[in-house]
Amino acid sequence: MAQTQTSAIKLPPLKKLTNYPEKLAPGHRLCAGCGASIIIRQMYMVANALGYELIWANATGCVEVCTTVYPYTSWKSPWIHNAFENAAATISGVEAAYKALKKKGKLPTDKKVKFVALGGDGGTADIGFQSLSGALERGHDFIYVCYDNEAYMNTGIQRSSATPKYANTTTQPVGSESLGKPQHKKWLPEVAAAHGIPYVAQVSPSHWKDLMEKFKKALLTEGPSFINAFTVCPRGWRTKEEEGMLVARLAVETNYWPLFEVENGKWRITYRPRNPKPLEEYLKIQGRFKHLFKPENKGKIEELQQEVNRHWDWLNKMEELTNREE
Amino acid sequence: MRPELIKEITYVPYSGNMAAAEAMRQINPDVVAAYPITPQTELMQFFADFVANGLVDTEYIPVESEHSAMSACVGAAASGARAMTATAGPGLAYMWEVLGIASGMRLPIVMTVVNRALSAPINIHGDQSDAMGARDQGWIMLFSENAEEQYDNLIQAFKIAEDERTRLPVMVGMDGFVISHSIERVRLLPDKAVEEFIGETKVMYPLLDVENPVTHGPVAMTDSYMEFKRQQREAMMEAYKVIREVGQQFEEAFGKKYEHIETYKIDDADYVLIIIGSTAGTAKFVIDKLREEKGIKVGLIKIRTYRPFPYYDVMDALESSNCKAVGVFDRAETFGAVGGPLYSDVATAMHLRGKLYPIVSFIYGLGGRDTNVHHIEEAIDKVMQKAAGKEVPLINYLNLKE
After folding, report:
1. Which of A86, A251, B23, B73 could share a disulfide with B83, CB 3.0–4.6 Å?
2. What are φ and ψ of residue A27, in 5° steps?
3. How many angstroms separate the CA atoms of B35 and B161, rounded?
């Protein structure tokens, strides 16, 4: 159903997309090279092109603190921040209010609106997990976007369940007895998909066309969608500010960050690197993995490569299984 | 519960939960987000029945927790909708973070709190520790003595919350089980009259106005946070007036008086009890009994408005009596401090007026422990001893096994 609907609606060419007025105003306080604002602006391009007004609920985190320091705001859209762990519950209330007021004829506008909850990986995969799961299960008409920068970056690089194994964080630092985080990253979009919701996608701003197509699908989907967005954090990852999109591209090209979607139960890998690069290339440009390149830690990179392969194989199997002709 | 609509004033045998649900039906809120917890569960079940049978226009969100219940109410109220919820004990504790957000964002949410004990040990029964734990979260706090008061207070709540001078959330408490689950005679008002009394939602800066986008809940740094909090205090002071005005409007419309406090046989009272909630009803019975049987003149001050605390109303009432000593009843503990929360407030009231009556503090009814006629008689006996200059312990537990 969604497939036929969404493929009929085409996004305009990039030149036109970039000509819409910005709705995330400049002057916000996000770090130079931060991936989050790039993702938000790419999503806005889609909303603008399709004539949607976005109404945001933002979890506490980098984006929230950097864009709304009273008395200033960067948001030219309706925007609400409630707390750290409740963006999904908050948007539930907003969406319910919209339905109630619309039914009573109290909303004077006939504009197309879409509700978007936005949170970092901590606010989504950790503390906001219950709230997210509840909202997905209840089937509110909204998009949850997780800008996954793989740790609590706003407060200074504390580990989250989305932090990859062996990354150096301030709460599981590398030391004489520690190689950083001992556990692998939580498979968050897979968990979201397990709710049986209509649309789930993983995206990277380096593959902007893929991101925009997926955001378009989410926008046109009735019911809950979940999007997990690769979000480079130069401060937290110890990468060069100007290399953000390079890091993001390498994450995809190494299969560390597979681009895939789950549409009405059908899994699909939306981009397959022709010759996947070794994970090492992605790791070596990030200070958070520096210790893995010491001779005494030999074998650890290979271990991470195995996890990448395992995940990639799993996704391929899901694609095959869910698309098999009966 | 009866599904039909009410056209004229009707008297029904209702429990507190039924009365609260009925008030919610008549208020017909835009959004209700709630999570079941004993002893509130039944209230939400009644309301869910209304939703299931099309008796309300409400968008009902059966959330996965109380934290999300209040979070969704914040989203809905910021959107310009009338939002309600209800909870009890640990549920209110779980909401605690978002309670302060609701008041800090100045959102007129209305909530029934079926007052229940906090864990541990886990206990589902009546106790006001839940509400007292949320005391400083910036909510207007009303308490009801019985089912009808719960109903009347809820009907007044949105008028108080949405007033431009307040814009604060309101919680209305009733004692778990003793009120929530006991059937008593309740006067129900006609649907139409309730609708007219409450009026249209007074909306300010709605999030859903996409033509005029507003940022709700920004970061306030050291240069502005304190001013936000100062304004909340101002709003709470204004609420003192608004609650009284709405009470007067209620009396004009429906012939029943609601003030910050209710006094009972206070004028000639030698001893005064100060109580919140259902036990005030038992106290009235004891007061009549002692006056009749022994000629002992006891009076009562029942606190309806707990926040903002009616300091001067309490003092005016005490000074209008022949008060020789006061018994303050707390259905909540404040570990490591003298008395309970109400004790502190009454002591502050006396200090403000510069008139210090002897006080005896009573802790009662924790975790649903019965407080019967003879326990209140025991308490009055201690207040009399105190008045007579005898030594009485500062803190006294009623019906405690020792």
Report:
1. B73
2. 95, 0
3. 22
Q: How far is CA B138 from CA B90, B130, B224, B230, B333, in A?
A: 19, 15, 18, 11, 20
Q: Residue A1's pLDDT is what? A: 43
Residue in A with minimal Cα distance to B224: A70
CATH code at B261-397: 3.40.50.920
Per residue of chain A (326 residues), what is the pLDDT tens digit? 445 567 889 999 999 999 999 999 999 999 999 999 999 999 999 999 999 999 999 999 999 999 999 999 999 999 999 999 999 999 999 999 999 999 999 997 678 999 999 999 999 999 999 999 999 999 999 999 999 999 999 999 999 999 999 999 999 999 999 999 999 999 999 999 999 999 999 999 999 999 999 999 999 999 999 999 999 999 999 999 999 999 999 999 999 999 999 999 999 999 999 999 999 999 999 999 999 999 999 999 999 999 999 999 999 999 999 999 87
The CATH H-level (homologous superfamily) assignment of domain B10-254 is: Thiamin diphosphate (ThDP)-binding fold, Pyr/PP domains (3.40.50.970)
For residue A40, the Cα-to-chain-centroid distance in whole angstroms is 10
Task: Tell me the CATH number at A35.
Answer: 3.40.50.970
Interchain proximity B75–A92, CB inside 8 Å = yes
Residues in CB range of A89: below 8 A, 6 or more apart: A82, A131, A134, A135, B33, B63, B67, B68, B69, B71, B72, B75
Chain-chain contact of B213 with A90 (C-beta, under 8 angstroms): no
Q: How far is A134 from chain B (nearest CA, A)?
A: 6
Burial of B299 (0-12, 13-18, 19+ CB in 10 A): buried
Write down the ipTM of this complex.
Answer: 0.97
B67·A103 Cβ contact <8 A: no
Q: Contact at 8 Å (CB) between A313 and A262?
A: no
Residue from the list A85, A92, A97 with its beta carbon closest to the beta carbon of B81? A97
HEC states along A179-203?
Answer: ECCCCCCCCHHHHHHCCCCCEEEEE
CB contact under 8 A, A104 and B224: no
Q: Structural domain boundaries of chain B? A: 10-254, 261-397
Burial class (CB in 10 A: 0-12, 13-18, 19+), B210: middle
Q: Which residues of B262-271 are buried (b: 16+ CB within 10 A; e: fewer)?
A: bbbbbeebbb
Task: Work out the end-to-end distance of chain A between its first and last CA atoms, rounded to an integer number of angstroms.
Answer: 18
CB contact B63 to A (< 8 Å): yes
CB B135 within 8 A of CB B126: no
Mutate to test the interface with B, among A82, A132, A142 (most CBs of B within 10 A): A82
Amino acid at A298: K
Give me the pLDDT at residue B5, please.
Answer: 84
